[in-house]
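Recap from last week: sequence in, structure out.
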Amino acid sequence: MNRRERADMSSDRIRVAVILSSVRKGRFGPTIANWFVGTADGRDDIEVDLVDLADFPLPTALTDEPSPEVAELLAAFSARLSAADGFVVVTPEYNHSFPAALKAAADWTQYEWHAKPVGFVGYGGLAGGLRAVQQLRHIFNELHAVPVRDAISFHGPWAQFDAEGNLTDPTNAEAAAKVLWDKLSWWALATKEAKTRRPYDN
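Predicted structure tokens:
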């Protein structure tokens, strides 16, 4: 492999922030997020950064003059988002919607999401998190992101994973994960290349 081929391979690698949005006590989100991150193992086109919103407790009350503590949290969170070429949001469904922590994270940020693809992994009861995902598509459109059509949905996930966090029957979920990664990678490369030709934010 020559130097140019190595450079081309490097430029095709994308960084994806997988955002774990549940922060409640006893949450099941880490099991699903860790499983999803694991489905990227073996792919040489994707680098994953797992971003846990529990590590960034941003307040729901917005202000132009945050306290030093909030400003520090926001700067660290913003840096993680800015470094990503795309995102996957892992979200439960609470009362037919998504967690307040995720809305606060979106409201505190803006340009970090621009012209980048966003995929979704939803989980919950009968709807499998799909109502939360549908609402999030509207929000990320407003943030100038590019929601990916294909998503993953877990109906009653508590019975689908064993004590070690492995799916008892991974066939369908792993196939859906591959489709999501493939589509997210395509859009991430497309938007990344487009922004090198013409900046999105002028």
